[in-house]
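Example for tutorial group B:
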């Protein structure tokens, strides 16, 4: 999360434009009726104008563009695969951007704008997988999936469905759920309005077709989906297994494992045996930033630390933290929340009430009182409001802190009525950090390591710059089994400082 004050991202942008690649039933259904061999329609002037308008806003929402050799490489591969779409001047018709985000994701918006995050790129094993993911997104644009989805939404009068669905899932349609859903969307950088399953499979087929035309191994789409499924499973395990895993409705790619076999079957339709260009890929991602960007703060073993803002806090036991460009999301079985900031005029009580006032357009939400306190020497204020929802009553809490630099930050949390205290330990953990502690927050990077004689999977994994799950992280990052035999001269990915 940045040092500057947050600006609300409109739900309309999210609902109408962001094309999150989430497999599953889809919110709107339909799709799957596009002839993958047909020449795609030219990108309309209207779509280009729409994409150009929202492109800078998406860059701000997703940590900005990741530039340098890695960014130029992703753009080059993306434009090359876009040329296989059959669209006239396809190479130049698409804008391909590598995003400075630690979320595993890729998506597209109308106008030929295609995005992938550096975190997802780091998970890939070769250039064919990168081309497959970008080709999948190009396929969404070529098949005009976003436009067809928008039209379907308008016919069914369900524009703005994301907030309503999340509100229903978590808070029973209180209006408060819509606000928290938007916050979670911003904080986690999650894309919640999915394509239909038919459209996802359609884009997978187009991705395989483009791989074939470009001379890549068509199985790459299946292998990258398999790696993503393994990463999702590991993330759930590291977040506390079962109960505290990221809920499916808030996942960027729910259940990619379900598409692996279908992607493999699609690849078998071609004369499989194209290139993977693994060495070229590894050379171009060597040194790429991995995980959280310290300029946006980092999450480390359940603690959020921001070296520029000089603050830190810890999640309650059994909860997970997901860092984003605009907020930090807090999730668990017994509550949800976010940590963020808003404009501050020096009156902490008014600040708390203003956050409550912005929670719902459907009902007035205000705490019965605002209490003042001090947390580890930091002036603070908080209030709790009981809110009636379709699923009963919930407690919304705003807990705000005043820092000496003239900024205020706050938690917004929601629990079932009477259970607001589950977050008390987190509120009380807020503290200032010293200059030396801030200086110790270092960025991680992808490091390409050449295996030496005598190295084993476990000995190399011990080089990973983590205090836990070193072996598991290494195996998923490299698509390896624990009993894999590595030979001297092989190249593998490490995460180091």
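The residue assignment follows.
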């Amino acid at each position: 999360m940045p040092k500057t004050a947050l600006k609300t991202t409109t739900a309309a942008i999210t609902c109408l434009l962001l094309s999150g690649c989430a497999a599953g039933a889809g919110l709107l259904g339909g799709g799957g009726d596009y002839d993958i061999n047909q020449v795609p329609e030219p990108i309309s002037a209207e779509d280009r104008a729409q994409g150009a308008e929202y492109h800078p806003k998406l860059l701000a929402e997703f940590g900005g563009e990741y530039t340098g050799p890695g960014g130029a490489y992703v753009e080059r591969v993306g434009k090359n695969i876009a040329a296989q779409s059959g669209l006239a001047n396809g190479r130049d018709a698409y804008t391909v951007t590598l995003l400075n985000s630690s979320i595993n994701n890729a998506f597209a918006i109308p106008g030929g704008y295609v995005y992938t995050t550096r975190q997802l790129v780091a998970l890939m094993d070769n250039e064919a997988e990168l081309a497959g993911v970008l080709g999948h997104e190009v396929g969404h644009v070529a098949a005009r999936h976003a436009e067809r989805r928008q039209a379907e939404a308008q016919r069914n009068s369900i524009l703005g469905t994301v907030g309503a669905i999340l509100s229903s899932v978590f808070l029973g349609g209180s209006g408060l759920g819509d606000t928290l859903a938007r916050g979670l969307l911003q904080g986690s950088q999650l894309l919640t309005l999915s394509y239909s399953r038919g459209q996802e499979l359609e884009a997978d087929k187009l991705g395989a077709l483009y791989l074939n035309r470009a001379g890549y191994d068509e199985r790459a789409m299946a292998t990258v989906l398999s790696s993503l499924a393994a990463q999702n499973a590991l993330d759930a395990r590291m977040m506390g297994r079962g109960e505290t895993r990221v809920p499916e409705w808030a996942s960027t790619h729910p259940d990619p494992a379900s598409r692996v076999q279908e992607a493999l079957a699609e690849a078998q339709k071609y004369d499989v045996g194209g290139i993977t260009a693994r060495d070229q890929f590894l050379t171009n991602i060597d040194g790429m930033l991995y995980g959280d960007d310290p300029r946006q703060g980092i999450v480390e073993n359940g603690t959020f630390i921001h070296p520029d803002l000089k603050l830190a806090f810890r999640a309650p036991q059994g909860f997970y933290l997901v860092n984003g460009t605009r907020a930090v999301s807090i999730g668990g079985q017994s509550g949800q929340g976010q940590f963020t900031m808003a404009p501050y005029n020096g009156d902490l009580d008014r600040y708390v009430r203003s956050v409550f006032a912005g929670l719902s357009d459907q009902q007035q939400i205000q705490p019965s009182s605002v209490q003042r306190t001090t947390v580890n020497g930091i002036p603070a204020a908080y209030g709790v409001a009981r809110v009636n929802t379709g699923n009963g009553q919930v407690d919304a809490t705003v807990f705000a802190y005043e820092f000496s630099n003239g900024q205020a930050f706050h938690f917004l949390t929601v629990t079932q009525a009477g259970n607001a205290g589950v977050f008390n330990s987190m509120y009380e953990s807020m503290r200032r950090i010293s200059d030396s502690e801030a200086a110790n927050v270092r960025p991680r990077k992808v490091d390409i390591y050449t295996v030496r004689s005598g190295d084993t999977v476990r000995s190399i994994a011990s080089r990973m710059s983590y205090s836990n799950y070193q072996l598991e992280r290494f195996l998923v990052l490299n698509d390896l089994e624990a009993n894999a035999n590595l030979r001297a001269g092989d190249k593998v990915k490490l995460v180091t400082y």
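Residues 220-238 form the longest helix (19 residues). Compare this with the pattern of hydrophobic and polar residues in the output above.
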